[in-house]
Each structure stands twice: as structure tokens, then as C-alpha cells.
Amino acid sequence: MNNSSACSASLAFATKSAIDLLETLRSHSLKSKSWRDLIKEVESTKKIFASLDERLTISTDANFLRLTYVLIEYGTACDNFKKRIVEVHDQGNDNNNRQKNACKSGKSQAGEVGKFRRLVNCFTSTLEVVTLASVVQNGLLTAKDLIGIRTIINCAIDDLDDLIQEINLELLEHTLPLSEMECLKHDILVLRDCREICVSFREFVHQIDGDLQHNNNDAGVLPKRDIPNMADPLSELYNQPPSDYLNAYFETLKDDSRKWDIDTFIEGLQYLARIMGSERDKYYKNPLNGLHYAASFAELWNQKHPQQRIDSLNFAICPPDWSSAIENRCLDLTYMGDGPLSQALNEIFQWPTTADCAIVCQLEFWMSIRYLIGDGLFDRIFTYQKGEFTLSQYCYKPFDPSNIEYGLDSQARIKMKAIYNHPSYLAKHPGGVARLEHVIQIDDKHIIFSSGARQNILTGEELEVALMTAYNAPRSLADEEEICLYTKNPEDIHPHLIKPFGSLLQEAKGFAEHSLSEIEWRDTKVERQKMAHGHHLILNFQRLCTALEESRDAYFNQSMRMDVFNRATELQSSVLRSKWN
Q: Start and end of every Azaphilone pigments biosynthesis cluster protein L N-terminal domain (predicted)?
């Protein structure tokens, strides 16, 4: 039986199970609101099955096997729940004191209904995503259609994340009977498959969206822009050698005699932080060189080249051997040169490069690995073909609370996370870069990326003050340029905020003079923490070292069958398998 046939068979099984469950629910006259809601949800799923059946033979997605498994699990869950309803009903009929029995079992039944409903919701969301993906695959859609579809997919993933987290917390409490804990573990495995399906289709939709934007630039997203009259001044910069101080830093990265421990790694992070912050003037003869936000680069450029002014909207600058691509206002930097990775990374720091704090955090980790092991080994075990090495603003894997080794309150010394500004930041500063700060946290200090800031290693309290100050600052030229864009294109849809530019223009007018007091700022702390949900990575330094050591040994033994990342992933998987066993 091929994948398509197996999936069709599992769809038929799930459909029959849903129909049988509906008949049981109706025949037992279960009329409370929770039961009525459950009936509606199962009916909704049955309709999706019918829609999916029409398109299943068209789909060629690699997720056939996962979908088959999810459909079987849905059908099995319906069958088991139907049996449970019959059992409870029969027990009630045999009991002489029905009223007492009803009171006693009412809460547990309500709990079972609630658990089953949330499972049905997640299955339904996943199957709806599959149906939508088939529409995308076979329909002629506009960019606005894709924005709506992407929103539905993101909501489904959020629902799955919430349920996985909820179940994981129940497991961590260790208060449930063993049999129920095993059922919950099984549910998590199924939900992960649902999640993989949704994430896969989200990537597929993102790819379709990118192709559409490439061919049609009138859908609310600006194309990457050619900036006139910049070639000659940039060529002059590219011909300048690095400063003596920056060159000395590059030479330091070649040293392979350092101890491989976490203190050395932290030393490398702090060294680079000083170069980008408090000691920047010493390392860069020309302030245009090095890393910048697009807005700060445009401001500096316009000061130095007033006859060749540029605006700050949707452009990117990178060294000659790198390419900058802006898709849906998200930046990717890809190395297209032939040199080793150490040389590629040096170019980013030597010449003008526009990036954001997420990309800079990744760069800081890469440079600290170089500082730890030396460029000789670094270039041997991190090898990429032309166009393979990319730094992207999309730097977080979707957060799965059931798939972590320790809690987010871990005492690990090095973390990467996002600290959000006030929820209305983008209304006050439409072109601002301080909506959030991706930071590397070392113990109680935070390394931030802030073009022009002389202090970029902050305590938690200092970071809070910096974010509030950024909110209360007057609007910048970048803000005004973004507002101008809203004014000229009121019908266009913002690709991330999913709102018409006209609506965003009205919000911007309402917050033009808004400032926050310290009390107002503190009152949003919980909300800002919720906004940062999932934007949290913990560096397992010991695993990194083990993966580096294994790759080093494999290289010298001429047995490089796995790269550093595959080794680290395998080490993580073994820990998680032990955890669940």
C-alpha cells in the first residue's frame, strides 16, 4: 500500500469513528454546554474530513506518513471516548443512588470532556492546515490570501504549543496515576507530529509567498531596493584594510592554545561585545564599517554623503562576497564567496553590514566558537559550499516545552532570549528597531546590539531602562519614512502585523506624543514576558564542547561522517530519550 492509499484508508477510519461518536453523543441525550460544544467540534472535523478527501489524491507532500498517523490517532481517540461514554452511562443506570453518583462523577466527566475537546481542537486545526495547504498548492492566490492562511497556520501551531506545554506541566507534577501519565506521553508524541505537519506547511506557504513577492511587488511588501550612487563610496571602504586593533582581534582568533571551558567562551563573547560597543571607535577608523541597523547606517551615511542621501526603508548592505535578501521584511545574509568560514565572518565585521539583533547574537556565538578553538580547527570542521551558510532573522526553533532538558529558569550561565518593549512600541515608532532586544545573557548581564551605543553590556534593570527610554524617545527619520509609506499605500497589508497600512497610520497618529511613566512601564511586565514566549534558548556548553571534540577527533581520524550540528543533535536526542524512558 503506497502512502496515498494508506492515508486514504486512515481518513476513512477517522471519518467513520467521528460519525459513530456523534451518534453516541446524540443518543445519550448529553445536553450540557460542554457536550453541545463537543458535538459541534466533532461535526466541524467531519466536514474537514470531507473537504480533505477531495484533495488528498492531489497532495504530494512528504507528510503523508505523519498525516496517516494523526488520522489513525484521531479515530482511535474517538472510539475510546465513545466507549467511555457508554461505560459511564451504563454505570449510572445500574446505580441505585443515581443522583449521588451523578454528583460524584460529574467533575471527572467534565474533566474528561475538557481533555478530549482540546485534543479534538488540535487535530481539527492540523487537518484544517492540511486542507489549506492543498488550496495553496493548487490555487491561484494573492499575497493577501497567503497572509490569512499563514495566520491560521500560526494559530494552529500556537494551540499545539499551548497544549503540549499544558500536558508537560501535568507530567512534571507527578500527581497522576501511571496509566494516565502514559496516555499523556502518547498524546504528546501525536501532538508533535501534528506540529511537524503544521510547521512543514508553514514553510511551504512561506516559500510560495516568497515566490509570489518576487514576481509581484504590488502586494504590500517593498522589493529589495537598488541604492543609487553608493557604488563608489562603498568601493573605497572595501579597499581599506582593517584597523590595527581589528586586525589584532582577527589574529587572536587564530590562537588554538586556549582552554576549552565556559570561562574562555564567555571571554570571547565579552571581547566582541566591547568591539561593537564601548571600544568601537578604537576598532573602526570609519564609523560606516562594521555592523549596523539599517536606520543607523542610513543616518551615518547621510551625514557623510549628503549629496547621495538614502532612506532607511527596506534596504540591506553587506560585503561583496555576501548577499542580502529581504523577504517579507526579513533579512537573510548568505555567504557566496569561496573563502573559509573564518574569512567570511571577518568580512562582516570589517566592512559595512546591516543586520538586526537576532543576526548579531548568532554572529557572537560563531565568533566565540572561533575564540575557543582557533581558526585552524574551526575552518576544518565547519565547511560550507558556496551559498550554504546563511544568517537569518528567523533564528529560533519553535518552542516545544515537552522537548527541553531543563526549565527556562535554568541556572545555565549563557542564554539567548528576547526582551520585549511596550506592546504599543510600533505605533509610537513605526520604523523603530527597539520593539524587542535579542540579547545574550551571561549570568546577570545582557549583551545587546545597539548601533552607536557606548554601553552594550547591561544588567536586567539597565536593559529595562534602555527599552523604556527608546520608547519615550522622539520619532526618528526612519519612523517618519514608515509613516509616509503608510500614507501612500493605505490599502496594503503589513506582512507581520497583518493590518492595513491605513489602520497603522491611525494608530501612529494616536501615539505620536505618547510617553510612558515608570509605573506604566512596570505594569506591562507580565504582558511583555508573554510576548517573549518561545524566544528563549539555553546554551548547553558541555554538549557544544563534546560535539566539537568529537568532530575534531573525527577530522584527524579522517572519519567526518557527521558534522558538529548533527553530533550535537544526536547528543540532545539521547538525553531526551533517557528523560522520557
A: 4-171
